């Protein structure tokens, strides 16, 4: 109701980095669903200005709509916001080109996945598969890539390639 009516909400929220919950007044813009659910909102009192942030729904202890209204950011698109991330991790400064190369043995299996809503796929002459997209969230990508073992190589970004290199196991079936 508050999202549709552009009404501010007050929540009691305890982030994973704080010991105590605290009240926050937010302009709610939508929800993202994945492994966890997140509220996408702006904090009008934030010293960082009108930055969009995500709040884990399971860390919201209570929520209530207020009688105060906000103006939705011009041009805000929840899908476009979500597409900047791998999973739900959001940090504009870390959005980068991502290129993964799956071995010929894993290519067919990888084709069945949507790793990112704006990904492109390219089959190589040797049967391998290259997947490309733009997103932030190197650590979340590293956790995800672990399950692919040595069947995937990170071609870009170099920081992600270095992060996963020592963890590309070959003992997964």
Distance between the termini: 47 Å
Helix fraction bin: 10-25%
Beta-strand percent range: 35-45%
Task: Kindly provide the radius of gyration, computed on alpha-carbon positions and rounded to a whole number of angstroms.
Answer: 19 Å
| Sheet having the most strands | 5 strands, antiparallel
Give unreliable regions as ranges: none
Write the element-wise H/E pattern from the N-terminal end onward.
Answer: HEEEEEHEHEEHEH
Mean pLDDT, to the nearest integer, reads 89
Q: Please tell me what the overall shape is.
A: elongated
Compute the number of strand runs: 9
Strand order of the largest sheet: 4-3-2-1-5
- Helix segment count? 5
- Structural class based on helices, strands and sheet pairing: alpha+beta
Polypeptide structure, described:
With 173 residues, the chain is α+β, with helices and mostly antiparallel strands. It is 20% helix and 36% strand. The protein contains five helices and nine strands; from the N terminus they run H-E-E-E-E-E-H-E-H-E-E-H-E-H. The strands form two sheets. It has a five-stranded antiparallel β-sheet with strand order 4-3-2-1-5. Helix 4 (138-146) crosses helix 5 (158-165). The protein is elongated. The N and C termini lie far apart (47 Å).
Question: Nutshell version of this structure?
Answer:
With 173 residues, the chain is an alpha+beta fold. It has five helices and nine strands.
List keywords for this structure.
alpha+beta; 5-stranded antiparallel sheet; elongated; 20% helix; 173 residues; single chain; 5 helices
């Amino acid at each position: 109701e508050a999202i549709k009516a552009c009404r501010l909400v007050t929540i009691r929220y305890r982030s994973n980095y704080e010991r105590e919950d605290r009240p926050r007044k937010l302009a709610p813009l939508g929800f993202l669903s994945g492994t966890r659910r997140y509220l996408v909102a702006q904090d009008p009192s934030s010293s960082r200005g009108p930055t969009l942030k995500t709040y884990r729904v399971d860390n919201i202890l209570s929520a209530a709509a207020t009688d105060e209204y906000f103006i939705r950011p011009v041009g805000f698109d929840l899908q476009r916001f979500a597409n900047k991330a791998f999973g739900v991790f959001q940090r504009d400064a870390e959005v980068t080109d991502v290129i993964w190369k799956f071995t010929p043995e894993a290519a067919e299996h990888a084709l069945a996945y949507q790793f990112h809503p704006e990904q492109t796929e390219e089959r190589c002459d040797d049967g391998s598969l290259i997947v490309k997209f733009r997103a932030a969230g190197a650590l979340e990508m590293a956790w995800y890539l672990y399950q692919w073992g040595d069947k995937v190589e990170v071609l870009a970004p170099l920081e992600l390639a270095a992060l996963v290199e020592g963890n590309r196991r070959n003992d997964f079936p």
